[in-house]
User: Which sequence fits this backbone?
């Protein structure tokens, strides 16, 4: 990559950072620090704004660069991700969004704890929410470091480390000074940039083939070196039964985990009503769906125009497929068009990372302050002080994420995103669905559902090939691998649901009918909603 | 996705989620502006519950609420089961039956491609169907229940 790319890309990065810091300052003035303002941005965003923000929160650099790259390398098997990431939104739309908006105030634990003994349930759900957020955050931070290094050509360790520190510092500034309002606007700006960038590249790819998708697919198959196999499943996940079950496990985690991601759920509190939450999800399904359709075109486009071999040569996991494609579409290395498009793609990827990490940092600071701290503080402390705690928690989360990001930057942490989804699906989703839909659900059931999903998910990963026992493991030297799959979802998701059921049927006291009535009436009508 | 309302467009305008539901007490000094008592379809207001908990139990047992709940569940339970099964079938077929999935259909498109695009299509269609169902069969009744419930809980110690 030449110096021109770097200069232009760095310029665009700086512009984006300046704009986002401007948003943060603009949003931060004249606002008193109420919890409503900090966690929910005042609850008056429109469905369209929130829909863009949800899309901006959800579509990570891993989707933009990672999925297109997987498609460029493995063809159809990369597409399986796109489908899973989209279908997941039906769970959110049908079962979760409106009811959560009606029942909760700021966090997932609000909903689950509403009918239960507050303290143990809040602690459990708060713990699993923070776990999910930190896993996701570390994956994004490490990704940011290697991505920026990759895009700017500087592969030195110092550049990567400073990127991790810089991204961490920025997200802490956005969140602690701007709260939900600044985070939302940053996500909206990012969603617009990402959609526009992907749309431009998609149009250029299709124009290159004169709109003939058939020709695109045929060329992609030809230049991939796999022929027609490239267009059907099996290149990545078809080699063994372990690989097959691994993908089924991941697919399950993707589709069920989205509805348990704390940073996604907290977005529904930024709109005034459940129906506005529903319409936000409709907007985000439209945006996310078209985005993943575009990643498919970009992935096959990269295979057709760059060639799978060149993509693999540049980066073994395919993360540079889209930037390379941009270079070719703009006219090739050294041309002005290529330089500009490449820099734009790099800047969009950077914006994507910043918006996603800001959303996760906010959600985890909310879990720490509103769920964990608020449970243990002395009664009678004001809400005002909770926001102060949340700001400090954002700094704490940032420091932890930077530290873990720096420690893990030489490790292959791609599995962390899958793990975050698996924990969300195994611990958060059972507790959430049971408390919304099951009359007899009890406090013990809720606590068991959370820990019964969280503990197996984490334990199974520790015992899996990603940690030990293989050449690509975190600790290749030792072997305590007992569980064959990289993603624990296939086991831990049923475990979470089962534990919640067992905990409930073995509870001694009867469930609280009156509070179940309150939850059910509030969830379906919106009576008394915050 | 919600703009195809047609004949009932005027009715749904009132229900626009963005404009509805100011919290009780906002701009309605007597607390009941715009709601004629005889227009209520919610739980009857004759009994005087002693606490908010009683109100919620009473509303939960009312026919109007049971109808809203029934309509919601009768849509989402089968729909969720259907799309989850369809997705699982797709993932399992893609990983375990590559031969079937590789069968060519037309041009470069094979069964796998069509199934994948079909997942996108069914997601969009189900989104549209859910939103339409909620708007036509649930929103108005739920909103009325919301006002009634809030009216009943007002002034009662919780």
Assistant:
């Amino acid at each position: 990559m030449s110096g021109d790319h770097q200069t232009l890309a760095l310029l665009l990065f700086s512009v984006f950072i300046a704009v986002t810091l401007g948003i943060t300052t603009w949003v931060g003035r004249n606002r008193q620090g109420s919890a409503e303002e900090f966690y929910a941005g005042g609850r008056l965003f429109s469905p369209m704004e929130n829909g863009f923000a949800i899309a901006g929160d959800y579509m990570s650099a891993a989707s933009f660069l990672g999925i297109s790259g997987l498609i460029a390398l493995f063809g159809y098997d990369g597409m399986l991700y796109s489908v899973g990431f989209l279908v997941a939104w039906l769970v959110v739309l049908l079962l979760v969004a409106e009811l959560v908006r009606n029942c909760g105030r700021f966090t997932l634990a609000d909903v689950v704890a509403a009918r239960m003994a507050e303290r143990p349930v809040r602690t459990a759900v708060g713990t699993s929410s923070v776990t999910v957020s930190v896993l996701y955050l570390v994956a994004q931070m490490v990704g940011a470091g290697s991505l920026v290094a990759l895009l700017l050509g500087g592969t030195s360790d110092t550049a990567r480390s400073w990127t991790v520190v810089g991204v961490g510092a920025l997200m802490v500034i956005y969140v602690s000074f701007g709260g939900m309002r600044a985070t939302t606007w940053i996500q909206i700006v990012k969603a617009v940039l990402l959609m526009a960038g992907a749309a431009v590249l998609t149009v250029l790819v299709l124009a290159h083939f004169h709109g003939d998708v058939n020709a695109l697919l045929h060329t992609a198959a030809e230049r991939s070196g796999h022929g027609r196999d490239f267009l059907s499943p099996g290149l990545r996940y078809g080699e063994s039964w372990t690989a097959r079950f691994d993908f089924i496990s991941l697919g399950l985690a993707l589709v069920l985990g989205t509805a348990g991601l704390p940073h996604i759920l907290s977005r529904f509190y930024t709109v005034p009503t459940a129906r506005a939450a529903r319409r936000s999800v409709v907007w985000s399904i439209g945006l996310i769906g078209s985005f993943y359709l575009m990643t498919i075109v970009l992935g096959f486009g990269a295979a057709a125009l760059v060639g799978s071999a060149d993509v693999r040569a540049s980066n073994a996991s395919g993360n540079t497929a889209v930037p390379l494609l941009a270079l070719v579409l703009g006219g090739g290395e050294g041309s002005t068009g290529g330089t500009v498009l490449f820099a734009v793609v790099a800047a969009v990827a950077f914006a994507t990372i910043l918006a996603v990490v800001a959303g996760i940092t906010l959600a985890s600071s909310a879990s720490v302050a509103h769920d964990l701290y608020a449970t243990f503080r002395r009664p009678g402390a004001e809400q005002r002080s909770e926001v102060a705690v949340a700001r400090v928690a954002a700094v704490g989360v940032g420091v932890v994420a930077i530290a873990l990001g720096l420690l893990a930057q030489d490790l292959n942490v791609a599995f962390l995103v899958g793990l975050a989804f698996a924990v969300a699906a195994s611990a958060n989703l059972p507790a959430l669905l049971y408390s919304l839909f099951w009359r007899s659900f009890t406090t013990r059931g809720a606590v068991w559902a959370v820990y019964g999903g969280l503990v197996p998910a984490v334990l199974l990963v520790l015992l899996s090939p990603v940690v030990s026992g293989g050449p690509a493991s975190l600790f290749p030297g030792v072997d305590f691998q007992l569980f064959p799959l990289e993603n624990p979802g296939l086991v831990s998701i049923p475990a979470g649901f089962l534990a919640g059921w067992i905990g409930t049927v073995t509870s001694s006291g009867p469930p609280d009918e009156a509070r179940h009535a309150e939850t059910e009436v509030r969830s379906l009508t919106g009576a008394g909603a915050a | 996705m919600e703009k195809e309302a047609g004949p009932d467009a005027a009715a749904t305008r009132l229900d626009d989620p963005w404009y509805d539901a100011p919290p009780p007490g906002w701009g309605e000094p007597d607390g009941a502006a715009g709601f004629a008592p005889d227009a209520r379809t919610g739980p009857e207001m004759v009994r005087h519950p002693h606490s908010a908990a009683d109100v919620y139990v009473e509303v939960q047992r009312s026919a109007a609420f049971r109808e809203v709940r029934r309509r919601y569940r009768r849509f989402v339970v089968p729909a969720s089961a259907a799309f989850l099964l369809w997705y699982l079938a797709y993932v399992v077929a893609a990983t375990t039956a590559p031969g079937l999935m590789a069968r060519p259909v037309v041009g470069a498109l094979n069964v796998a491609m069509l199934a994948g695009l079909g997942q996108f299509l069914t997601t969009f269609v189900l989104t549209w169907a859910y939103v339409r169902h909620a708007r036509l069969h649930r929103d108005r009744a739920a909103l009325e229940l919301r006002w009634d419930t809030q009216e009943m809980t007002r002034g009662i110690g919780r």
